[in-house]
Amino acid sequence: MPFYVYILTNQQNGTLYIGRTDDLIKRVWQHKEQLMKGFTSRYDVNKLVHFEILDDAAAMIQREKSLKRWKRAWKIELIESKNPDWHDLYEEIIK
């Protein structure tokens, strides 16, 4: 079973949100439909710009915690290293 760490935003260089899940499609859909009350719905953060696949839950949790401690500039570099135009990757993962 794959596990995921993901980064959402509301716009290029906008507000960033880091989360984790074992069902990326469902979780991003929940954010897009604003079913996840709190930070992401308040700031309209629902654009998937980065995700990583991990092998186990412990690695997922550790990676999420690590990314949350990163400086903002490092997070932006990570996003832009694989997604320089900040495209919403949701359409790609639902195919």
Overall body shape: globular
The first-level CATH class name:
Alpha Beta
Our Rg estimate from Cα atoms comes to: 12 Å
Tell me the β content.
15-25%
Average pLDDT score: 96
What sequence of helices (H) and strands (E) makes up the elements? EEHHEHHH
CATH topology: GIY-YIG endonuclease
Please tally the β strands and state the result.
Answer: 3
Return the CATH architecture.
3-Layer(aba) Sandwich
User: Biggest sheet: strands side by side, in what order?
Assistant: 2-1-3
What oligomeric state do these chains adopt?
single chain
Figure out the total of helices. Answer: 5
Class from secondary-structure proportions = alpha+beta
Q: What helical percentage do the residues reach?
A: 40-55%
| Parts with pLDDT < 50 across at least 5 consecutive residues | none
Q: Please tell me the total number of domains.
A: 1
Provide the CATH superfamily.
Answer: GIY-YIG endonuclease
Distance between the amino and carboxyl termini: 19 Å
Characterization of this structure:
The chain is α+β, with helices and mostly antiparallel strands. The protein has a single domain, classed as GIY-YIG endonuclease, CATH 3.40.1440.10. 43% of the residues lie in helices and 22% in strands. It has a 3-stranded antiparallel β-sheet with strand order 2-1-3, with helices on both faces. Strand 1 (3-9) and strand 2 (16-21) form a beta hairpin.
